[in-house]
Write a structure and sequence with these properties.
By secondary structure, the protein is of the alpha/beta class. It has seven helices and 13 strands. It has a single domain, classed as Spore Coat Polysaccharide Biosynthesis Protein SpsA, Chain A. The strands form four sheets. A seven-stranded mixed β-sheet has the order 5-4-1-6-11-8-12, sandwiched between helices. Strands 2-3 form a two-stranded antiparallel ribbon. Strands 7-13 form a two-stranded antiparallel ribbon. Helix 3 packs across helix 6. The longest helix is centred in the last third of the chain and has 14 residues.
């Protein structure tokens, strides 16, 4: 599931005339970075949701017809459904899973261990309801917060307290199954709702990104990410 429906307001003025997933980074659109990485990890089909300037994203998907993964559009023109609601709407297209849920503005330079296959290897439905990719704050670009999660040695994670600083940020990718969406509300809701449910049952886990995460949320972060890719030869 590639989340591509949002307005990208923090990326203005670039997003006044194009949807954020089509903003270029190093000569490729953000969504191409995401789809190419999913394809390299063995993902055969990607569901892409659309709401803001949807025709542009649909047209761009036709340019990828000769390379994977196969893309299917989940149409949210009538109502923007947020990260959880958008994925719930697309469950009939996603199947039982497990499947990735991937933000369209989350890119990274890989370390020794590629992130998505690393998540696939760590997926264990006996222990977890959802598995999150977490990036160390110390090496991340475009993120200025105090962290999102702490992580125990076994991978179980906990949220940052109100006055805490924790070492990891959510890097924009999670792995779960359709069962994770049982008894969800109608309409828009955030994935945070489901993460909190999993946290209450000690069933939310994470894996550490071996690489440099780039949260490309603003024009300034885009410039910083470009410079990092050029420096690392990514």
């Amino acid at each position: 599931m590639v989340l591509a429906a949002g307005f990208g307001e923090r990326m203005r003025p670039l997003t006044e005339t194009m949807p954020k997933p089509l903003v270029p980074l190093m000569g490729r659109t953000l969504i191409d970075h995401v789809l190419d990485r999913l394809h390299a990890a063995g993902v055969e089909t990607a569901v892409v949701n659309v709401h803001y300037l949807p025709e542009q994203i649909e047209a761009h998907m036709t340019t990828r017809a000769d390379r994977g993964p196969k893309t299917i559009i989940s149409d949210e023109r009538d109502q923007l459904l947020d990260t959880g609601g958008g994925t719930a709407k697309a469950l009939s297209l996603l199947g039982e899973g497990p499947f990735f849920i991937h933000n369209s503005d989350s890119v990274w330079s890989e370390g020794v261990t590629p992130a998505l296959p690393h998540m696939q290897r760590h997926w264990n439905p006996a222990l977890m309801d959802c598995l999150l990719l977490l990036a160390p704050l110390s090496t991340s670009i475009g993120y200025s917060g105090r962290g999102d999660f702490d992580m125990a040695p076994d991978g179980q994670i906990s949220r940052r307290g109100e006055r805490q600083v924790v070492p990891f940020a959510f890097a924009g990718v999670s792995l779960c199954t359709a069962a994770f969406f049982e008894d969800v509300p109608e309409g828009p809701f955030s994935l945070n709702l489901l993460w909190d449910r999993a946290l209450a049952k000690d069933r939310l886990y994470g894996v550490r990104l071996d690489g440099r995460w780039m949260h490309v949320g603003t024009p300034e972060a885009l410039t910083e990410a470009e410079a990092s890719f050029e420096h690392e030869g990514a």
